[in-house]
Amino acid sequence: MIALSGLTKRFGDHTVLDHIDLELERGEIIVVIGPSGTGKSTLLRCINFLETPDAGQLTVGELSFDVTRATKRDILALRRRTAFVFQNYALFAHRTALENIAESMIVVQGMAKAEAHRRARAILERIGLADRADAFPAALSGGQQQRVGIGRAMATGAEVILFDEPTSALDPEWVEEVLTLMKQLATERQTMIVVSHEMQFARDVADRVVFMDGGRLIEQAPPHELFTRPRDERTRTFLRKVLASAPQPES
Amino acid sequence: MHALDFDYMAGLVPILLGYLPLTLGMAAAGMICALLLSCLLAVIRVSRVPGLNGAALLFISFFRGTPLLVQLFLFYYGLPQIFSFLVSINGITATIMGLTLHFSAYMAESIRAAIIGIDRSQTEAALSIGMTRAQLMRRIILPQATRVATPTLMNYFIDMIKSTSLAFTLGVTELMGATQKEAAGSFLYFEAFLVVAVIYWVIVEALSWLQKWLEQRLNRAYQR
Ligand SMILES: Nc1ncnc2c1ncn2[C@@H]1O[C@H](COP(=O)(O)OP(=O)(O)OP(=O)(O)O)[C@@H](O)[C@H]1O
Ligand SMILES: [Mg+2]
């Protein structure tokens, strides 16, 4: 189980996250939506401690601590239980696709190189890039790079994978293959928190959609409910805007 | 004016080449030590390790701000007067030490610039998968930074080879010291120093060529 309670983050005197409470069951898939600058990325980054929260309690599995008293050990343990998929992929430029995926197994889990490479190959197989194992990131398309980014997250064995707008930086032609991979992970019941503007993906895959605005969770509900009967005015306004501008789903 | 004594010069070449291993050896040893030290200094500067950062700045400032020859004299002639356990320090060790400290100060700044140039998102990615700061540096940042800095580091290596000639002022008979002795014996100063100049020149040209080749390869790296 993953739980945040009272999670708060300020940049200067700007409160970007305001006492966020959120709970996820193992295998649950949550999509976070909301206007720009609302704190969605900051929320994910705090869960991975890429940003240091100012207050709150973080729980991932057996690990639970007050963020104001987090030790180095807590932070490392937290990062080993969570993985991050970045908008701009952030692959290690000097490592091949295979090595990018194997890195955490070798360095963090202390696995022997041969074993790590064997498992990395299995992951490449699952993300459909077995034939690109020895390619460096610069030689891969955006979609392929992001799939390697997801493969790298999968390899950590993390209990939850955090996706920060994984398709926003992609050329339209590559979006689908990344969403397909994420759907595949969803059917395998990989716990995930996804920040995305892909409303169709949220509809298809999310167990719960969370709407954020101004650093707060405004409402959360299963997708069909949130999209058809939003309770809060702010949610309605937001949905009206994005659904109007979104391309109509192809039939 | 007298004509150049070509026979003497031709005979000198093999004699002087015999000292090449010592010259190149001191440069190589100095380079390896300087690489390690400069990486350490660069990491301290980039991560702003409290306390150490100031020390690194002072170190870099001093070793860039004073002539190498002065530093060599300081180590070889000066330090043993203060620290008696250094009395047995020989000229070769003192030279390697001087080259290391002097050049690491310059190299640290090149490596620091290269580190800063690496996309910050790779740092976040490394941390997000659970790496420690040390693992991040060793596995992700330094391999890329040293690669970016390689052409510049090669320049320092070339410079270092030429600087080994200063060892002769500490009584080391390396390439330059040997030439000095030969010249003093034959009184053919011009011939002797011309030969040694050409030897340095050829080495440096060969390394410059290697450097260009390496640079081209590095530009093509990570594209496969
Ligand atoms: N390092 C930082 N320093 C100062 N302010 C920051 C920093 N990072 C984010 N912010 C601010 O915090 C707020 C929330 O940013 P965040 O990136 O979390 O929003 P977001 O919901 O992810 O937006 P988007 O949809 O545009 O990605 C913004 O006002 C942003 O300017
Ligand atoms: Mg964002």
TrEMBL record, chain A:
Keywords: ATP-binding, Nucleotide-binding, Transport. It is a peripheral membrane protein. Signal peptide: none annotated. It is found in: Cell inner membrane. SUPFAM superfamilies: P-loop containing nucleoside triphosphate hydrolases. GO terms for cellular component: plasma membrane. Its main location: membrane. Residues 2-239 form the ABC transporter domain. GO terms for molecular function: ABC-type amino acid transporter activity; ATP binding; ATP hydrolysis activity. It comes from the Bacteria. The keyword Transport applies. Belongs to the ABC transporter superfamily. This is Amino acid ABC transporter ATP-binding protein (PAAT family). It comes from Kushneria sinocarnis.
TrEMBL record, chain B:
Keywords: Amino-acid transport, Cell membrane, Membrane, Transmembrane, Transmembrane helix, Transport. GO terms for molecular function: L-cystine transmembrane transporter activity. It is a multi-pass membrane protein. It comes from the Bacteria. The chain crosses the membrane at residues 20-44, 56-76, 82-103, 187-210. InterPro entries: AA_ABC_transptr_permease_3TM, ArtM/GltK/GlnP/TcyL/YhdX-like, MetI-like, MetI-like_sf. Residues 20-211 form the ABC transmembrane type-1 domain. Its main location: membrane. One of its GO terms (cellular component) is ATP-binding cassette (ABC) transporter complex. It is found in: Cell inner membrane; Cell membrane. Belongs to the binding-protein-dependent transport system permease family. HisMQ subfamily. This is Amino acid ABC transporter membrane protein (PAAT family). It comes from Kushneria sinocarnis.
